[in-house]
C-alpha cells in the first residue's frame, strides 16, 4: 500500500499554485526492529473497563519498534526473517502442529516484492468475550446474573506509510468493539425490541414512554423500530471511530503514524457482520455463487463525497486544489477555452470555460490504482493518517478520509451451509490481480482436493490464493501463469469456512 | 404532494427551542384562475439562443394564473372543470380523435381527493429539435453543413405548495435540455471520442494535446475516457440546475413559488435517459421482468447527505434543529439519560448521553410518507422551493434540497423489444398504493386484451393504472377492491412503449 501514498506527487503539484516537490514522504516511521514477542491475547480474558462513550477505552499498545507479524503465525526469529525476505517471498501460514484458528479458519500471507521494507499488512483472529457493563434495569450486576456474549473476530489491516497503524489496529480494534458491545450484552439476548432510552445511573428507570408525544398527524408521533442487528452495526461503526481517535491521541508515543485500511468480520448471535473501510475486499463463495460482502472506498468511488466536502469547506483545499474534476491536466495556455468537467453533483460531464482557479490541481485525479486524493493517497477510508499532509505543504489530508466502515450483514441461519462455503477476505494485493470469479474457481479446485472434514483444507486454500496472486519469479519479475505480472504488494488472505467442521463452536 | 409540505409542523417545532406554530404554509400561491390557453409547442421550432454556461437560457413563461392542465389533453373549458372536480375524480387522457402522442405513448391523470384545490401534477411530452450552436472546429456554421439532433421527451412534475413550479418546469425543462445539448450536436454524431477541450472562439484550434503532461508514474499522466453517453447525462444534470436557477430568478414575477419533483425521460440516439429528482418512479416492464429505472429521494433515503450538510454547516440548522437522528422525540425530563441516535456517518444505532442540544428538533424525522426535513418537506430533490422556510421561522430549507437528478441510461438497441415492453412513469400517487409487481401484472392484463398494433392500448393501460390507484368511492372514501384506501393524491402516469408500432419514429 505504500506506493498509494508516495506516488509521483513531485511531478504533480509543482504547478498550478502548489510549491515544489519533496522526494520522500514525511510520514514514514522510524527504522524497524525485532518482532514483538507479546503472547497471544487470551480469548476470554475480562476486558479493560472504561467509561461509556469516552474516546479511548481500550488498552494501548506498548511503545516499541514497528515490525511484527500476527502472533498466530508463531514465527521463530528465523521464521520472521524468512517472512521478511522480499527475494524469496515465502508464503506464511499458521503451523499445522499448533492450535488451529477458530472455525479452522485458513490464513496465508506474503510480503511485497520490495515496495516497502516490511510487510505492512497485519491480521488478527480472536474469540472475544464481552461481559455486560451493568444490567439494563440499572441494578448493579451480580456475578451470577446474566450471561456475557462471545463474538468471533477476524481482521485484515493493510498499512501505508509504515506498518504502525495497521499493527495498532490489529491489536486493539476488537477491544474497541468489545467495549462498544458492553452496553448491549443484555439487550442483544433479549428478544424484545431494544429500549430507546437507558437510565444514566444504576437504579433509575428505563424509559420507553411515549405519552408526551405529539398527535397522530405528526411526522414525529411514532417511534422508529431499531433492530438488534442495527445496534451491532452501530457498535462496530463507533469502534472504528474510537480506534481512529486513539491513534490520533497516541500517534507520537507509539509510532502508530501512517494509516491502514481495515476489513473486519464479527460473528455474533448467528449473524456475520463484515465491516470495510478501505480497498480490501470480502466475498462469500456459496455453492459456487459469489456474494459480494464489501465495496472498495477509493478516490473514484468516493469522488462526489470528497468533492462535496471540498466545495462546502474550501479552506480544506488551500490555494493548491480545486474541487472540480477534469479529464486531464489543464495547461495555462488553455485559459479561456472550454474543458470537460464534473462537480460534486454530477455523474456526467459538461464543458465549462477555463478560469484561473481551474488551473489548480484537482482534489481527485487519476484512474484505477493511480487515482489519488490531493495527489497523495489512493484510499479514502481507513484508520490513522492523522499526520498525512500534501507533499511539501501543510495541507492535511485527513479531513477527506473517513474512518467509518460500510457494514454488511449476512445471516448464517438463513441457509444451510456446506463445508465448501467460505467467506474470503483479502487485501488489495490479492484483488489487484485476481477476480472474484477466479477466487471462486480456486475455492472449488482446492477444496475438492481435500476431504470435507479435513480442517487443513482452508489453510491450503488461503495459500493457493496468495500464491496465485504472487506468481513465480520469472523474466525479472513475479509472474502469473499467463505471463502477466503478479502482485508486488503485500498479500494477506483469510478463508473463513461457513459450514466447516469447526464453525460456530 | 401538498400535504408533504404542510404536515403537522405546528405540533412539532413548538418545543426544543423553536418558536410557536403557524397554521398555514407561507408558500401557497395565490388563488387559481382559468386554464392557460397557450398553444402546444411546435416540436421542431428553432430554440431561443442563449450564451453557453449562463443561467437563464430558456424562454420564460408568461405571467399568469397558475391552473392549467397539459396542453396535449386538449381540454375544453368544460373538460377542464370536470378534470378539476375532486368529487368525481374523472380520469383524463388525450382524446382518441386528436393527434397521438409520440410513440403512441399512453397518458392518464386524475386529480386528488381534496388535499389541494387543483391538480398539482403536470406533464409534458414533446419532440425537440436541437440545432448545433456552431461547429466544433470553430468555423462558423453553414446552413447546409451538419445535421441537428432530435430527442423525444416525457416529463412528469409533481408540485407541492402550489402548482406554479410544476407548471413552469413542464413548459421549460425540455428547453433547458435542448440548450445544453446545442454544444454537443456534432460531437454526439461523431463516432470518435469527445474532445476534452473546445476552443473559446470560432477559428481557434481544438485541443486534445497531451505532450505537456507529466511522466508515466503520475496519477495524472493520462486522460480520462469520456463517453458520449456521459455528455448527455451531464447536459440533463445541468439543465435541471439551470431550470432551478431560473425559478429562483423568476419566482416572484411568475407565481412559480412552491416546488416540484421532476421525472424526465429523454430518448436520444438509441438510448433512453431517465432522470429523477424526487419521489416519482420509473420502471421498465420487459417480457414481464421489472427493471427499476429510478430511485426515490426522500428524507429517509437521503438522511446521511442531509445530516452531513447540517454537521458541516451548522448555521443552516439555526438554534432549532440538531443534525442527529433519534428514534423518537426526547423529553426534557430525559436529559442526562442515554438515548439511541445516529449521526451522518452511521447506518446503525448507538446510545449517547442526552445533552441540552439533543432536545432540539431533529433535522430528519419520521418514517415512510411521514418523513420530513426540518419538520416540513417530505422530498429532498426537485425544482423550486426557493422561498420555503421552516414554519414560523426564517430558516430556509432550500439548502438541504438538491435539484440534481439521478440519471439512469437504458440502451434500447441492446434488446429486441416487443409491443408489450413498456416504460412506466408515475407520480407518487400511483406508487403509494401500487407495487412494481402490481403494475407489471396490470401491464400484462391490459395489453393482452388489445391487438399488439392497436395504438390505443397504451392509453388504456395508463388509465387502468390510474384507476387502480384511485379506486372507487365507497365507505366515505376512495377504496381499492381489497377495501384498502386508494390514493387521495394527484395521480399521473405515462406508458411509453419500447417496441410499439410508433416507437422511435
From TrEMBL, chains A, B:
GO CC entries: mitochondrion
Name recorded for this polypeptide: (raccoon dog) hypothetical protein
Molecular function GO labels: [pyruvate dehydrogenase (acetyl-transferring)]-phosphatase activity
SUPFAM superfamilies: PP2C-like (SSF81606)
Region spans: Disordered: 1-103
Matching Gene3D superfamilies: PPM-type phosphatase domain
Compositional bias (Low complexity): 27-39, 47-58
Leader sequence residues: none
PROSITE patterns, per the entry: PPM_2
Domain PPM-type phosphatase: 104-498
Amino acid at each position: 500500500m505504500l506506493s498509494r501514498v508516495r506516488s509521483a506527487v513531485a511531478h504533480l503539484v509543482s504547478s498550478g499554485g502548489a510549491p515544489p516537490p519533496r522526494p520522500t514522504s514525511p510520514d514514514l516511521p522510524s527504522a524497524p526492529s525485532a518482532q514483538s514477542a507479546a503472547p497471544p491475547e487470551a480469548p476470554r480474558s475480562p476486558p479493560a473497563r472504561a467509561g461509556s462513550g469516552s474516546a479511548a477505552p481500550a488498552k494501548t499498545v506498548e511503545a516499541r519498534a514497528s515490525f511484527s507479524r500476527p502472533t498466530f503465525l508463531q514465527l521463530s526469529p528465523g521464521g520472521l526473517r524468512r517472512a521478511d525476505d522480499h527475494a524469496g517471498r515465502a508464503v506464511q501460514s499458521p503451523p499445522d502442529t499448533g492450535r488451529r484458528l477458530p472455525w479452522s479458519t485458513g490464513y496465508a500471507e506474503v510480503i511485497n516484492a520490495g515496495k516497502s521494507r516490511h510487510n505492512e499488512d497485519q491480521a488478527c483472529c480472536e474469540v472475544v468475550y464481552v461481559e455486560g457493563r451493568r444490567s439494563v434495569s440499572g441494578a448493579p450486576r451480580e456475578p451470577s446474573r446474566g450471561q456475557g456474549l462471545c463474538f468471533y473476530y477476524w481482521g485484515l489491516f493493510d498499512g501505508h506509510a509504515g506498518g504502525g497503524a495497521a499493527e495498532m489496529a490489529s491489536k486493539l480494534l476488537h477491544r474497541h468493539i468489545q467495549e462498544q458491545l458492553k452496553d448491549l450484552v443484555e439487550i442483544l439476548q433479549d428478544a424484545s425490541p431494544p429500549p430507546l432510552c437507558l437510565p444514566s445511573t444504576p437504579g433509575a428507570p428505563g424509559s420507553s414512554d411515549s405519552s408526551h408525544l405529539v398527535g397522530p398527524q405528526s411526522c414525529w408521533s411514532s417511534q422508529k423500530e431499531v433492530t438488534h442487528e442495527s445496534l451491532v452495526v452501530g457498535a462496530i461503526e463507533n469502534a472504528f471511530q474510537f480506534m481512529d481517535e486513539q491513534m490520533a491521541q497516541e500517534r507520537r508515543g507509539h509510532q502508530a503514524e501512517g494509516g491502514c485500511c481495515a476489513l473486519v468480520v464479527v460473528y455474533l448471535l448467528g449473524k456475520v457482520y463484515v465491516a470495510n473501510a478501505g480497498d480490501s475486499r470480502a466475498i462469500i463463495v456459496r455453492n459456487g455463487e459469489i456474494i459480494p460482502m464489501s465495496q472498495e472506498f477509493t478516490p473514484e468511488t468516493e469522488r462526489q463525497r470528497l468533492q462535496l466536502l471540498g466545495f462546502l469547506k474550501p479552506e480544506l483545499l488551500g490555494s493548491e486544489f480545486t474541487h472540480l474534476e477534469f479529464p486531464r491536466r489543464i495547461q495555462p495556455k488553455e485559459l479561456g477555452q472550454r474543458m470537460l468537467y464534473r462537480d460534486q453533483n454530477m455523474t456526467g460531464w459538461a464543458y465549462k470555460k477555463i478560469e484561473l482557479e481551474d488551473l489548480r490541481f484537482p482534489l481527485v485525479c487519476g484512474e484505477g490504482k493511480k487515482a489519488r486524493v490531493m495527489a497523495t493517497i489512493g484510499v479514502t477510508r481507513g484508520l490513522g493518517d492523522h499526520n498525512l499532509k500534501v507533499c511539501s505543504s501543510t495541507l492535511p489530508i485527513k479531513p477527506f478520509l473517513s474512518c467509518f466502515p460500510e457494514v454488511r450483514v449476512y445471516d448464517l441461519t438463513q441457509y444451510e451451509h456446506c463445508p465448501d462455503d467460505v467467506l474470503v477476505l483479502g487485501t488489495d494485493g490479492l484483488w489487484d490481480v485476481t477476480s472474484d470469479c477466479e477466487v471462486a474457481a480456486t475455492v472449488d479446485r482446492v477444496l475438492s482436493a481435500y476431504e470435507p472434514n479435513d480442517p487443513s483444507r482452508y489453510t491450503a486454500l488461503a495459500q493457493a490464493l496468495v500464491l496465485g496472486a504472487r506468481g513465480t519469479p520469472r523474466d525479472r519479475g513475479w509472474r502469473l501463469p499467463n505471463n502477466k505480472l503478479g502482485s508486488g504488494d503485500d498479500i494477506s488472505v483469510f478463508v473463513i469456512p461457513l459450514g466447516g467442521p469447526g464453525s460456530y463452536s
